[in-house]
Amino acid sequence: MKRTETFYDIPLDVSLKKALLLWGEQHEEVVFLDSNEYVQRHGNFDAVLAVDALTAVRTDAHNAFEDLSEYRRITNDWIFGYLAYDLKNDTEALESENFDGLGFPDLYFFQPKKIIFYKSGKLVFSYLPMADDEIEEDYHKILALRSASVPGKAHDISIKLRVHKEAYKQKVEEMLAHIHRGDIYEANFCQEFYAEDTEIVPLRCYLDLNAISAPPFATYLKLEELYLVSASPERYLKKSGQTVISQPIKGTARRSSDPEEDNRLAVQLKEDEKERAENVMIVDLVRNDLSRMALKGSVQVEELCEVYTFKQVHQLISTVEAMVAEDTDPVAVIKNTFPMGSMTGAPKISAMKIIESLESTKRGLYSGAVGYFTPQGDFDLNVIIRSILYNSKRKYVSFSVGSAITAASSPEREYEECLVKARAMRQVLGGES
Known about the structure:
With 433 residues, this protein is of the alpha+beta class. It has a single domain, classed as 4-Layer Sandwich (Anthranilate synthase), CATH 3.60.120.10. The protein is built from 11 helices and 20 strands. The protein has helices spanning 14-24, 64-75, 88-91, 135-144, 165-181, 202-213, 259-271, 273-291, 330-335, 348-358, 411-429, and strands at residues 4-9, 29-34, 47-59, 79-83, 107-119, 122-127, 160-161, 186-195, 217-223, 226-232, 235-240, 243-247, 249-254, 300-309, 313-323, 345-346, 369-373, 379-382, 387-391, 396-405. The chain has a 20-stranded antiparallel β-sheet that branches. Strand 17 (369-373) and strand 18 (379-382) form a beta hairpin. Helix 1 packs across helix 4, helix 5 (165-181) packs across helix 11 and helix 6 crosses helix 11 (411-429). The protein is globular, with a radius of gyration of 21 Å.
């Protein structure tokens, strides 16, 4: 189905982004992706808003990748949505039996009637035929919202810990015992922060979180009663033509307001043997995952343990690139690499089994991926970290954080790293100033 495109020259600023989000809120299905001016976020656009489903696929893990592949082929259009972590149960003989307070389906993608891109200094309205006569009207409605206020005040929610400090440290010790026995080399161990019987204004949370973090993979997602507010700095996987890249993050250091100390922290991170070892192990895992589908000899490490600086943290990021055959099913590329190695560990299957046994909650959408497919079969997906999840019917709010456990890990240090990663979400929800 051919889309109608209309272009408007207008600067992209905070007021326009806010207006797009306020206008989008009238719909049941909303995905907003913002690069926050970082290079290579979407490739061809700085931000995109997709709303109002014409069709959708919403399913559990059983045959989910096959369902998504068929849905993508049938629509032959842009589709937006997410893959939850527990799709691991569709790629391997695994289960997810832990407590789930959120109730997100394992997979949810939709074909939007209306897409608004910002690229090359222009606002581009890309509408399906049943909606294309609304473009001019919608454009003026959006302009009128630039000066509008966002509903809701700053939140003040009492956040609970699913696992308290001493219990967390004991679980890390159990993880270390697995490592010392040789069951695994590394595992990403996560913990949940949550609030029950609580109502929030997700759009207010998104704007507040993005103001704090301004990451390259910011996401606001609303699918019926389900909400994702994400300040993710990490790309999981991107396909452009025959080129596929993954950019795993492993290694975190706090920022400092003092420039000299901040630079010292970045240098220390770059030289930290434990952090580099974590990153290198995951790079090896990603190389192995990509090699399953890649053309022979095409898997290359383009960057290894480079320091990227964001508003709140320094991160060690590597870039792994591969080439796939022209006729490769794009969903098959994802299935062969999912879940992302940075959120599992090595060896991957053993790590996922141990994670399931030691974590207290089902991960669900956390450490999954959100993004889009183009009509040509290209895609770009982030890693869902640094994110707030909300089910408005259940009135349940949740965010999770984790760290990589290796033989060199200190339970105390890993706990402190989790608190650093949790700070922005706690601040937005009122659990920390």
